[in-house]
Amino acid sequence: EVYFKNLSKLKQKEVMEKNGNNHKLRVCVATCNRADYSKLAPIMFGIKAEPQFFELDVVVLGSHLIDDYGNTYRMIEQDDFDIHTRLHTIVRGEDEAAMVESVGLALVKLPDVLNRLKPDIMIVHGDRFDALALATSAALMNIRILHIEGGEVSGTIDDSIRHAITKLAHYHVCCTRSAEQHLIAMCEDHDRILLAGCPSYDKLLSAKNKDYMSIIRIWLGEDVKTRDYIVALQHPVTTDIKHSIKMFELTLDALISFNKRTLVLFPNVDAGDKEMVRVMRKKGIEHHPNFRAVKHVPFDQFIQLVAHAGCMIGNSSCGVREVGAFGTPVINLGTRQTGRETGENVLHVRDADTQDKILHALQLQFGKQYPCSKIYGDGNAVPRILKFLKSIDLKEPLQKKFCFPPVKDNISQDIDHILETQSALAVDLGGTNLRVAIVSMKGEIVKKYTQLNPKTYEDRLELILKMCVEAASEAVNVNCRILGVGISTGGRVNPREGIVLHSTKLIQEWSSVDLRTPISDALHLPVWVDNDGNCAALAERKFGHGKGIENFVTLITGTGIGGGIIHQHELIHGSSFCAAELGHIVVSLDGPECLCGSQGCIEAYASGIALQREAKKLHDEDLLLVEGMSVKKEEVVSAAHLIQAAKLGNTKANSILRTAGTALGLGVVNILHTMNPSLVILSGVLASHYVNAVKDVINRQALSSVKTVDVVVSNLADPALLGAASLVLDYTTRRIY
Description:
Pfam families: Epimerase_2 (PF02350), ROK (PF00480). By secondary structure, the protein is α/β, with parallel strands linked by helices.
């Protein structure tokens, strides 16, 4: 034992000499409220666990010491940290002036504390006004500052405070790649920036409390089930207090109407917080049977509550940051978090000006389960931060140096270039081929991979994963950042769950297939799935003739007949995800049999399969070939032969194509009379052969009020892949109410 102790001391000495330090690094961690302590506590535990390298001093101030906010300093004591100093710095008040006075009071009290502690470095978190006082005091007293979570973007005055602290800080620990780039753009020294991830994620991603039901019962009651309650956490917006109070009233009204058990946490100490508490009491929230109003929940228990909630609502950064680790649905209200990077689980209600709008958002989000997001961390932030602290050389000059860029155009700061690099992985599952492509934000297919579509489910899924992994790796080489995976497939699809419900006969073993889960788990990316016809419509909406058009219909004319309907700029799926099965509009009661089992469908007349059937009949009767044509013995007769024969003057082939065009035209007339779109887009290999016939039928058969509709041929080379990509590119740039 003595031998190993001596060996440990020797190793400690070697590390200290290597880092140029001859003493332990004295670290002061200052915490102001319950929120910043959840981020600082993992770092404090890490520092405490390595006493051979660090001395830890803890300073507590701000709302930690106020009874109205739960006296949260007690949780620091419960975590077995010695609090060196308690500073009462909050000036009670209802307006912005109270915040200013609180900063002033902290500036008066902090110098004496820092003179006594003489820390080598102070760790400051975030963007609160208390943190600004800490950073200002330390900077003016020549104490090095390590700032946690700099470089992020959000709404309200917090943005300005966060960036002000960044300019005062000597070292920076950021959570995301974007935040790192923002710090570099703010002229901070790249060598003093650590991309570590959020420290709270170290605890979040390892949280495995099997007894979470007891926590839920403690805070919400014995009769509450998982995924059947709401957590609400809303703070005043100091740049528009009146509006934020009104929004809080509307939120409470919506929650009362929604009639689910709800845990409401008291707001932060900010101008307007007392008015929000009065609103809660005016509406009787503390005595309402569906509500539990609390000042504070310990972080370990809070993360279990949000992890198993049906939804979280409010404007707390916790909703857009930490909750994503569990895939819990979040409704982000107002502008307080504008600019934050968010996962798929967050639905923004920017202008929450009506109760109905908030209620509708609750109906959309409650009870869903999204893929877990690791935007803000991978669970290894603290080891990185400790290593970074050990690397600090106290002999280096204290004066900060700013890295100003050269005064010239730089493509890395050009928004067009940034948008070009944002890309999607697009997957097209056809009857014959399986294709994967990297598609840029502008609709450029950067790289495409094609393989024969396997016949079995297992082989097909294995090949999809293999091709996606290969494409994702290649994306790095071509400077593309993959935002997600979009999949276009035949058959009926539930896009909400990412499940293929029923397949077409062209794709075998492809019913009741969950595509989202295995692909998302393998690639750690969000995945969207939709029917190929719907994808074609989305491709037109984003990249083609449908761009900016409110109501239009896309018809795919290929092996089969499919399509998609855009109504008021939105794709229509229908109550059972069966909308826009346009190929199965019946245009004749005694027409040819369709693959769906019915008779007289458009697809039975105008699809590639239907034309091939008619071509074979003519060929068998020696009525297909005309002068200038030949079909080799081993060659399969196809629709292309029928079209070629018609062009060379074969009257029977011409008659078949006219009938097919008429059937398609009648189907379009039915669509015009039902949906009244302003545009019809014909897509697919047969579109150019049908467009004139469709226009003729509209002129003859349609009501005069819809005859003005535009009928055009798609100019998109690959609508299936572009549509799959648009699933990703449209939705990862966030849905906004």
